[in-house]
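Sharing in case it's useful to others searching the archive later.

Someone asked me privately for the predicted structure of Vitamin B12 transport system substrate-binding protein, so I'm posting the question and my answer publicly. Question first, with the sequence:
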Amino acid sequence: MNLRYWPLLLLLVGLQVLPAQAKPQRIIALAPHITELLFAVGAGEQVVAVSDYSDYPIAAQALPRIASYASINFEAVLALQPDLVIAWRSGNPAADIARLQQLGIKVAFSDPLTLDDIGAELRLIGQLSGYPEQGEQQALQFEQQLAQLRQQYQHKKPVTAFFAMGTAPLSTIANQAWPQQILQLCAVNNPFASSKGDYPQVGIEQVIQAQPEVIIQPVAEKVLADFSYWRPFSALPAVKKNQYLSVNADFIYRTTPRTLLGITQLCQGVDAYR
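And my answer, the predicted structure tokens:
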């Protein structure tokens, strides 16, 4: 063989023997939505620890909790020897994430901000965990169903509603808050949509002035919504007509494929009052 071809031959042989990037075997998820996304793409068996409130799917409930919204248990993380930690860029303390990186731990980030980001997150989590095909499949399925819901509700008659984040203090949603995006898709008019901040506090006088036809309240699964706070305010059309709607808080607040269930639940619930 001509010697001038040896460098090319050696390069080709080298490429054949290089190992593919190893699939991470010990993953820590630092937010409930990340846990749920990992299980959705088929990587549940690789998850060795999660954050507080990571309760879905059921298998996640048996995993150790090593983080809260306020802090990370570094000793627990190091003891688990993860080869990948997936953090929530908007939710986990930046200083804690920086310390993980300083300790030599590989950190990737999840940060869905819009409904459309969920498809991209499924692809990302699939790539990170070694399940790119499953991530792509789940993403396409989510995007198709989301598009169908948008088409179904794009010409619906708007209904004015008050989304009650809480009543002590009285708070709601606005701007780019996750539930606000769902209200918009469902053709629900939020009179506080342009308020300052994504989760503003409001006064009951402001709510009465807005005259909502429906009051929407998120609740935990298997918890009955308590609408007794509203009964004294008969000046509200929603109270006068007894038009209340409770929705599953996990479906509404978590950026996962189950968001589709939250959209469906809220849209169909509002439909009853159009």
